[in-house]
Inverse folding.
C-alpha cells in the first residue's frame, strides 16, 4: 500500500479521534463527579450543532473571517453549557438523593424531549452549516489533498486536553473535580458546596459536548439523529479510557480513530460492530478501562440501590394481586381485539421487565443490554419456525428461553467479572454485538429487514387463545421467578449485592451465583422474546437494540427498583402510556419524555415505591422498617 | 397494581378523531359494516417523527389530495362518500408499527392500511396485513423483498423499488465506457441490496465491468474522512453512491475538498430527491448521474398546478414525499371507484392491473408482483445559484424497469 | 496439632514490602493479637490468611492443610470465619437473615430455588444470636442497629460456619469503650469454650492486653517481637518503636483491670 495513503488515512483517523475526544471528555468529567450516566450528553452535542448552524452564519455575515467562525463555535458551546446548567438545576439536582439510576432515567427523558424540540424548532430538514472561512480548501500532503479544517481539528484535540489539564491542576474548581472523581464522599465531608460543584461540572460537560457538535458543522449537517449516533461512541470512548479519566478518553479516542480508519480497509462492513467489540475486549482484559480505577466504594457501607428488604404480601395485597390477575384474564371477555393485543404486549413486557429486575433489583447487576436476551429468544423462535426446520410453535417456545439462556451464560461469564458501571457497559457492548450479528448476518437472520411469517400454531392463532397462552406462560414465569427471589438463591444474590466481601467470607461463590442469575434472567427474557415474536409475526434487529433495553430499564425504574412487583406496574404503566400518547401527535416522544421526568420527580422511588411510602406513612409502623413487597 | 386498569381505558384520542362505535367482536364483518356510511376511513401509518423530512411533505400532499377528492364529490361509486385518512406515527419500529396497524383496523375501523417508510417496518406490516387479511398499500419502503420473496397478495407497493431505481441508473451509465467502479453504500439492507443490484446489472450490461472496492459505513455515522480516503485509494474510474441524508452531505463535503469526484463518473441513487439535495446546498456536486424529483422542471400532466396548490397551502416547495402522497391518494380514489366497495377482496381485484393517471404520468399496479410502475426522473446534478438541481432530465417510466416476470415468479413462489 | 501455621509470608505492592517473611503459629482456643502502627502490614497479613489477598510467597496451613492463595470463599469453607474492620453485613436483611444466610452457605444450600429462605435454619440462627446477645433483635433490620450491635451480628455470622479459626480485623474499631470490652470478653469466652483460635488486630491496647494470650508486633511488614502480653510490654524495642510511654501505661491499666 502507498505510504502516503497510510499517512493520510491516519490523519483522517486523528481528526475523527479529536472530535470524539472533545465530546467524550465532557461525558467522562460529568460521570466522574456526579456518577451520572448522562444519556443527554448526545443531545447537548446535537444542540451544539444546531445552535452553531443558526448562530455562525449570522456572525459571518457581520465579519467573514476564521476568527468569527471560531468565536461563533465557542459561543454555541457556552450556550449549550447554559442549557446543561438548566438541566442540572431544574432536574438533576432534585435527584441526587434518590438511587443513581433514576438520574439516568431522567437524562433519558431529556433525550426524548430534546429530540422533538429540535424537530419543532429547526424543522426536519438537515441543516448544513457554513464552512470555516479560509479553511475550505484541501492542503497538499505527500501529493494528496487533505482538508485544512481537519488539520485544525487534529490540533483541537490536544489543545482541549491541555486546557483541561490546566483547569484540573491550576484551579480550585479543577482540583475539586479531581477530588470528587476519586472520592465523592470526601468532597461532601470537606464542606464543599456540592450543588455548585455539580452545576459547574454540568456546565463544563455540556459545553464540551456543545463544542464537539459546533465544531462538526463544516463536516456534518445538523440533523435530528446525531444525538444517538454519537452517544454510544462517546460511551465507548469513556469506558475504554476508564470512566472519569480525561487522558484515558484521549487515548481511547486515538485508538478508535485509527482502528476505524484502517479497519474499514480490511473489513468494509466492520463499521457496525467495531467499537463495541473493542470495548468488550478491553473490559474483559482490563475491567476498569485503560486508565480507570476500581470504584472506591467497596469498603463503605452504602445502602444498595435495589430491593432493600423482602416481605410477604399483606392480605390486602394478595387480594389486590388476585384481582389484578382476574381483571387481566377478563380482558378478552370485555375488551375489543385491540385491548387484547395491548394486554398481551403488557404481559410480555412485564415478564421481560421482571427478569431485568431480578438482575438489577435483586442482584445489583445493572444491565443496559437486556434486549439482547429478549431478542435472542425472539430470533431463536422466529428462525426455528420459518427456517429450514419449519419447527412448530411449541418447540420454538421451548427453544427461545434455552437460546437466550445460552447467550446469557456465554456473555454473563465475562460480565460477572466486572462490577458497577463497567459491568453495565459490558452488557451494552454485548447487546450491540448481538444486534450487529442479527443485523449483518443477512443469510440467516434476514438482516435489518428481519424475518416475517412468525405466526403461532393454528390452535393458538386466535387472538384470545394466544392471549391466554401468553398469560399462562408469563404469569407462571413471573410467579416462579418471584419464588426464586424469596428462596435461598435470591437471598444469596442479595447477599452478594449487599456485601460481596462478606458473601465470599461466608463461603459464597459470588461470581458463580451472579452468572447463574444472568442465565436465569436471560432465559426468562428469552421466553418473553419468543412470545413477542409470535404475537408480532416478525423478528428484526430492533428487538435486540439499545432503545428496547432502555425501555425495559425505564419500566423497572418507573415501577420502582426497590420493590419486587414494581416492574410489573412499570411495564403496564409505560406501555399504556406509550400506547396512549402515540396516536395523539407525532411529537409523542416529547410527551413520553415529559411523562418520564414527571414520574421521576413526583415518585422518585417509582410508582410501587410511592404506594409503599404512602402506606407506611399512613400506618406509621412502629418497628420493622420493611420497605417493599 | 391499580395502574393496570388505566391500560385499558382508551384515552381521549377517540374524541379527537370523532366519535366511533365501540368495536365489537367479529372484526372483518364490523369493518365492512362501519364502512357502510360516512367517510371511507383509511389508516395511514408513517414515521412522521423520526423521518419527518420525508413524511411530513408526504402527509401534506395527502391532505391536499384528500380535500380535492372530497370537494369533487367524494367516491362516486360509493354514493359520493368522502375519504378520511387517519394518520398515525408508526414509531419507526416493527413492534410499534404492527400495534398501530392493529389499532387502526380495530379501533378506527379503517378500510385498509397504507404508508410506512422503513423497510423492516413495511415488511412487518405487510406480513401483519397478510395475517389479518387486510389490504396494505406500502407507499414508501424500497426493499425489493416487499414485492418479491416476502410479497403477499394483500400487499401492494407504490414507489419504484431499489432494483428499479438502480436499473434506471445502470441504464444511464452503462454506455459511458467506465468499467472500474467503486461502491459506497450505507451498511443496511437498502445499501447492500442496491450494491448487489448494481453489480449484477452492470455485469450483465458492461463487458469487463469490475468492482475495485466497496465501503459500507454505518447508517447515520459515516466517518467521512476515512471513507473518502479509502475510496480514493481504490483508483476507480466510476463511483456508485447509495449514501443519503446526513451521511451524503458529510461525504460530499469531504469528497469535494479531497477531490474524490474529480475525473470520476459518479452514479448516485436518490440524490436528486429534494429531501437529500436541499441540505447539500451550494456544495451539490455537478454532473452526478442520479434519480430524483426535479419538481421545478416538470410541466406535464397537471404537475405545475399541483406545485402551485402545494406551495399556496403549505408555503413550501414540494418534496418527493409530496409527489408520492398525491399519487397514492389518486390511486386510492381510482381503486375505490373501480371496486365500488370497501371489501378487501374487491379492493384487491380493483387494484391489480389498475392504471391511474397521475401527475407523473400513467401508473399501473402490476398484478404479477403488486409493484406499481411509478417511475423516477433520471438526470445529472447541477448547481443553480446556491442550490442543487437536475439537468438533462428525463422521466424513466417504471414500467421499463420492473423485475423480469420470471424472476418475480421464482421469488414469490415460496 | 497446631491450628494455624504461617511461615515466611511475603507480599509486595509495587516495590514496597507490605509484609516480609511473616511467620507465626496459633493453637486452638488461643487468642493471638497482632499490633503495630498504621501501615505496618497488619491488614495485609490478615487478608492473606483470609484469602482476600494472595501472598507472593510463604505458606499458610490450617489444621495441616495448605490454604495459602486460595480464594476467600474456599478458606471460609475450610473453617475460617472472619469479621472486618468496617463491619460487612447484608444490610437489606434482618439480623436473623444475616445469620441464616451464613448457615445456608455453610450447608451448601445457597442455590436453592424454591424453598422459602426465611424459614430455613431459623432456630439455629436464633441460638447463635442468643450466644452473642442479639436474640431479641433477631427480626430488626441490620441497617438500623447501633454499630456495636452490628459487630455482634458479624460475630454471629462468622460463627455460623462453626469455624476453627476466627479472623477479626480491628473488632472494636468505631465502638464505644463500654461496648469494646463487652465484645472482646464475649469473643474470648466463645473462643475458649468452643476451642476456636482467634487471630485479631487491634489499635485499642486495652483490648489487646486484656484478652490476648500472645501478641505479635509488626513494624514495616516485619515481626519485631512476639510473646505474652507481659513480654511485649517489657520489650524495650517495642516500647521504643511503637507503644511509647502512653501505650505502656494503657497496657498496665488494662492488665490490672483484667486481673481485678
Amino acid at each position: 500500500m502507498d505510504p502516503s495513503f497510510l499517512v493520510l488515512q491516519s490523519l483522517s483517523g486523528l481528526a475523527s479521534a479529536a472530535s470524539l475526544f472533545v465530546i467524550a471528555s465532557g461525558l467522562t468529567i460529568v460521570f466522574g463527579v456526579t456518577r451520572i450516566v448522562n444519556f443527554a450528553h448526545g443531545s447537548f452535542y446535537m444542540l451544539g450543532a444546531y445552535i452553531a448552524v443558526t448562530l455562525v452564519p449570522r456572525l459571518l455575515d457581520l465579519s467573514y473571517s476564521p476568527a468569527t467562525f471560531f468565536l461563533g463555535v465557542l459561543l454555541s458551546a457556552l450556550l449549550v453549557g447554559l442549557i446543561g446548567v438548566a438541566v442540572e438545576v431544574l432536574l438533576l439536582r432534585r435527584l441526587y438523593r434518590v438511587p443513581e439510576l433514576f438520574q439516568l432515567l431522567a437524562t433519558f427523558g431529556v433525550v426524548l424531549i430534546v429530540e422533538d424540540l429540535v424537530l419543532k424548532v429547526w424543522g426536519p430538514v438537515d441543516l448544513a452549516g457554513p464552512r470555516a472561512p479560509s479553511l475550505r480548501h484541501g492542503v497538499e500532503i505527500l501529493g494528496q489533498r487533505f482538508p485544512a479544517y481537519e488539520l485544525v481539528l487534529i490540533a483541537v484535540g490536544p489543545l482541549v486536553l491541555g486546557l483541561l489539564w490546566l483547569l484540573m491542576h491550576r484551579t480550585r474548581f479543577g482540583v475539586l473535580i479531581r477530588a470528587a472523581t476519586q472520592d465523592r464522599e470526601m468532597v461532601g465531608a470537606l464542606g464543599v458546596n456540592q450543588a455548585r460543584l455539580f452545576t459547574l461540572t454540568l456546565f463544563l460537560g455540556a459545553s464540551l459536548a456543545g463544542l464537539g457538535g459546533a465544531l462538526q458543522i463544516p463536516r456534518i449537517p445538523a440533523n435530528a439523529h446525531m444525538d444517538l449516533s454519537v452517544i454510544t461512541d462517546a460511551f465507548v470512548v469513556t469506558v475504554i479510557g476508564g470512566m472519569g479519566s480525561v487522558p484515558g478518553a484521549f487515548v481511547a479516542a486515538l485508538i478508535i480513530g485509527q482502528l476505524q480508519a484502517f479497519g474499514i480497509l480490511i473489513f468494509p462492513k466492520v463499521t457496525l460492530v467495531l467499537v463495541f467489540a473493542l470495548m468488550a475486549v478491553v473490559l474483559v482484559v482490563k475491567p476498569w478501562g485503560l486508565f480507570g480505577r476500581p470504584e472506591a466504594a467497596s469498603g463503605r457501607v452504602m445502602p444498595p440501590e435495589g430491593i432493600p428488604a423482602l416481605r410477604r404480601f399483606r392480605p390486602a395485597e394478595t387480594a389486590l394481586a388476585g384481582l389484578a390477575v382476574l381483571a387481566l384474564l377478563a380482558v378478552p371477555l370485555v375488551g375489543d381485539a385491540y385491548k387484547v393485543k395491548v394486554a398481551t404486549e403488557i404481559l410480555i413486557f412485564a415478564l421481560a421487565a421482571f427478569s431485568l429486575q431480578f438482575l438489577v433489583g435483586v442482584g445489583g447487576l445493572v444491565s443496559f443490554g437486556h434486549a439482547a436476551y429478549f431478542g435472542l429468544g425472539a430470533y431463536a423462535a422466529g428462525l426455528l419456525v420459518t427456517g429450514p426446520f419449519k419447527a412448530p410453535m411449541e418447540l420454538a417456545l421451548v427453544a427461545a428461553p434455552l437460546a437466550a439462556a445460552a447467550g446469557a451464560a456465554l456473555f454473563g461469564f465475562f460480565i460477572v467479572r466486572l462490577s458497577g458501571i463497567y459491568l453495565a457497559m459490558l452488557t451494552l457492548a454485548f447487546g450491540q454485538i448481538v444486534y450487529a450479528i442479527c443485523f449483518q448476518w443477512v443469510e440467516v437472520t434476514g438482516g435489518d429487514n428481519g424475518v416475517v411469517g412468525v405466526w403461532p400454531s393454528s390452535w393458538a392463532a386466535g387472538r384470545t387463545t394466544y392471549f391466554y397462552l401468553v398469560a399462562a406462560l408469563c404469569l407462571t414465569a413471573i410467579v416462579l421467578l418471584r419464588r426464586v427471589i424469596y428462596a435461598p438463591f435470591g437471598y444469596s444474590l442479595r447477599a452478594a449485592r449487599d456485601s460481596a466481601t462478606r458473601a465470599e467470607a461466608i463461603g459464597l461463590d459470588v461470581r458463580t451465583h451472579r452468572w447463574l442469575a444472568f442465565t436465569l434472567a436471560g432465559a426468562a427474557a428469552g421466553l418473553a422474546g419468543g412470545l413477542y415474536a409470535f404475537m408480532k409475526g416478525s423478528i428484526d434487529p430492533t428487538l435486540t437494540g439499545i432503545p428496547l433495553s432502555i425501555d425495559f430499564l425505564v419500566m423497572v425504574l418507573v415501577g420502582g427498583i426497590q420493590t419486587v412487583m414494581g416492574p410489573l406496574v412499570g411495564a403496564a404503566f409505560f406501555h399504556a402510556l406509550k400506547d396512549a400518547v402515540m396516536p395523539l401527535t407525532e411529537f409523542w416522544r416529547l410527551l413520553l419524555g415529559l411523562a418520564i421526568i414527571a414520574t421521576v420527580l413526583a415518585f422518585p422511588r417509582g410508582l410501587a415505591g410511592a404506594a409503599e411510602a404512602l402506606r407506611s406513612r399512613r400506618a406509621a409502623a412502629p418497628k420493622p422498617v420493611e420497605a417493599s413487597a | 397494581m391499580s395502574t393496570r386498569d388505566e391500560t385499558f381505558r382508551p384515552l381521549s384520542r377517540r374524541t379527537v378523531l370523532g366519535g366511533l362505535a365501540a368495536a365489537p367482536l367479529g372484526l372483518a364483518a364490523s369493518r365492512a359494516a362501519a364502512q357502510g356510511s360516512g367517510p371511507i376511513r383509511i389508516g395511514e401509518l408513517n414515521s412522521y417523527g423520526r423521518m419527518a423530512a420525508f413524511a411530513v411533505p408526504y402527509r401534506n400532499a395527502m391532505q391536499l389530495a384528500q380535500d380535492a377528492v372530497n370537494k369533487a364529490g367524494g367516491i362516486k361509486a360509493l354514493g359520493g362518500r368522502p375519504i378520511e385518512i387517519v394518520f398515525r406515527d408508526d414509531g419507526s419500529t416493527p413492534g410499534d408499527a404492527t400495534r398501530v396497524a392493529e389499532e387502526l383496523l380495530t379501533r378506527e375501523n379503517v378500510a385498509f392500511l397504507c404508508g410506512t417508510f422503513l423497510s423492516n417496518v413495511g415488511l412487518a406490516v405487510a406480513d401483519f396485513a397478510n395475517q389479518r387479511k387486510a389490504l396494505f398499500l406500502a407507499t414508501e419502503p424500497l426493499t425489493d423483498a416487499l414485492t418479491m420473496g416476502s410479497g403477499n397478495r394483500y400487499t401492494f407497493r407504490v414507489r419504484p423499488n431499489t432494483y428499479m431505481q438502480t436499473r434506471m441508473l445502470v441504464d444511464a451509465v452503462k454506455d459511458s465506457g467506465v468499467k472500474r467502479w467503486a461502491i459506497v453504500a450505507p451498511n443496511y439492507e437498502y445499501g447492500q441490496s442496491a450494491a448487489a443490484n448494481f453489480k449484477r446489472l452492470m455485469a450483465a450490461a458492461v463487458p469487463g465491468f469490475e468492482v475495485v472496492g466497496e465501503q459500507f459505513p454505518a447508517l447515520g455515522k459515516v466517518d467521512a474522512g476515512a471513507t473518502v480516503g479509502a475510496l480514493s485509494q481504490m483508483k476507480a474510474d466510476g463511483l456508485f453512491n447509495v449514501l443519503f441524508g446526513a451521511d451524503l452531505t458529510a461525504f460530499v463535503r469531504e469528497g469535494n475538498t479531497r477531490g474524490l469526484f474529480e475525473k470520476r463518473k459518479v452514479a448516485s441513487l436518490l440524490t436528486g430527491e429534494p429531501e437529500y439535495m436541499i441540505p447539500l446546498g451550494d456544495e451539490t456536486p455537478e454532473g452526478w448521474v442520479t434519480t430524483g424529483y426535479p419538481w421545478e422542471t416538470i410541466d406535464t400532466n397537471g404537475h405545475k398546478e399541483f406545485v402551485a396548490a402545494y406551495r399556496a397551502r403549505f408555503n413550501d416547495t414540494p418534496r418527493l414525499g409530496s409527489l408520492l402522497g398525491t399519487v397514492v391518494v389518486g390511486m386510492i380514489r381510482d381503486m375505490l371507484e373501480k371496486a365500488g366497495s370497501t371489501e378487501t377482496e374487491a379492493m384487491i381485484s380493483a387494484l391489480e392491473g389498475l392504471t391511474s393517471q397521475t401527475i407523473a404520468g400513467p401508473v399501473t399496479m402490476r398484478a404479477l408482483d403488486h409493484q406499481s410502475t411509478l417511475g423516477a426522473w433520471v438526470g445529472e446534478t447541477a448547481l443553480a445559484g446556491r442550490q442543487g438541481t437536475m439537468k438533462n432530465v428525463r422521466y424513466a417510466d417504471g414500467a421499463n424497469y420492473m423485475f423480469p416476470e420470471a424472476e418475480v415468479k421464482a421469488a414469490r413462489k415460496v | 496439632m497446631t491450628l494455624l501455621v504461617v511461615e515466611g509470608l511475603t507480599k509486595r505492592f509495587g516495590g514496597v514490602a507490605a509484609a516480609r517473611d511473616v511467620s507465626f503459629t496459633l493453637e486452638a482456643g488461643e487468642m493471638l493479637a497482632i499490633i503495630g502502627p498504621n501501615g505496618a502490614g497488619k491488614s495485609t497479613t490478615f487478608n492473606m490468611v483470609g484469602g482476600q489477598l494472595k501472598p507472593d510467597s510463604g505458606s499458610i496451613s490450617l489444621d495441616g492443610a495448605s490454604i495459602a492463595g486460595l480464594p476467600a470463599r474456599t478458606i471460609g469453607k475450610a473453617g475460617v470465619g472472619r469479621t472486618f474492620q468496617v463491619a460487612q453485613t447484608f444490610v437489606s436483611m434482618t439480623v436473623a437473615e444475616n445469620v441464616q444466610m451464613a448457615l445456608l452457605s455453610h450447608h451448601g444450600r445457597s442455590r436453592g430455588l424454591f424453598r422459602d429462605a426465611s424459614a430455613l435454619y431459623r432456630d439455629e440462627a436464633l441460638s447463635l444470636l442468643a450466644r452473642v446477645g442479639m436474640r431479641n433483635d433477631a427480626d430488626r433490620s441490620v441497617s438500623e442497629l447501633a454499630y456495636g450491635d452490628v459487630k455482634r451480628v458479624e460475630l454471629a455470622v462468622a460463627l455460623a460456619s462453626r469455624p476453627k479459626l476466627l479472623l477479626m480485623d480491628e473488632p472494636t474499631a468505631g465502638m464505644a469503650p463500654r461496648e469494646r470490652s463487652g465484645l472482646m470478653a464475649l469473643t474470648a469466652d466463645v473462643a475458649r469454650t468452643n476451642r476456636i483460635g482467634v487471630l485479631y488486630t487491634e489499635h485499642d491496647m486495652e483490648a489487646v492486653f486484656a484478652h490476648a494470650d500472645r501478641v505479635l508486633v509488626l513494624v514495616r511488614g516485619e515481626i519485631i517481637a512476639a510473646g505474652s502480653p507481659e513480654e511485649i510490654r517489657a520489650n524495650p524495642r517495642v516500647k521504643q518503636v511503637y507503644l511509647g510511654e502512653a501505650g505502656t501505661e494503657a497496657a498496665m491499666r488494662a492488665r490490672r483491670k483484667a486481673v481485678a
About this structure: The radius of gyration of chain C is 18 Å. Chain C touches chain A through 48 residues (CB under 8 Å).
